[in-house]
Amino acid sequence: MTQTLTLRIVGRDLPGAECGGYRDVHVAVQRGAEPDRPVRADAAEVVFEFEVSVVAAADGTPDFKGPYVQGKRGERFFYLTWGELPPGGEFAMFRRAKLWFADVPEAVLTAGVGVGEVGLTDEKGMPLCAGVRPPGVAWGVG
Predict the structure, then answer these.
(1) Which InterPro entries match (predicted)?
(2) Under the phi-then-psi rule, with left for phi > 0, alpha for psi from -120 to 50, and beta for the rest, what region is 73?
């Protein structure tokens, strides 16, 4: 059986459009290899909503499919991607944050709708990157 899971990612505490040596900083959820709906990093908050398919693997565990899903079975995740996006220019990615589907609670999978809340600035004042797991992301039914 295939189920649709709608996720809404709410990012707060953005690092700003200028940080480190970067200018015109934007964040987006990654769809395939491309940023989807980049938002300038000086926004008060960002909200990304997207759908993934949840299917039962042969062993009965949930597996995730769709254009926002990255990684191999058992290690599926999605990216929040950071890049410079000057007016009239192309998105130039410089770092990413990885969030794992395995961390999405069973209650969210059952409901088919979830919200992940995440602070997007690291301890050095730069865009959040690397692996983000709870409590760095707080998941709830939404």
Answers:
(1) DUF5990 (IPR046032)
(2) beta
Q: Tell me: pLDDT of 1 over 80.
A: no
Question: Which pLDDT tens digit goes with each residue over 36-69?
Answer: 999 999 999 999 999 999 999 989 899 999 999 9
Residue 142 has pLDDT above 90, yes or no: no
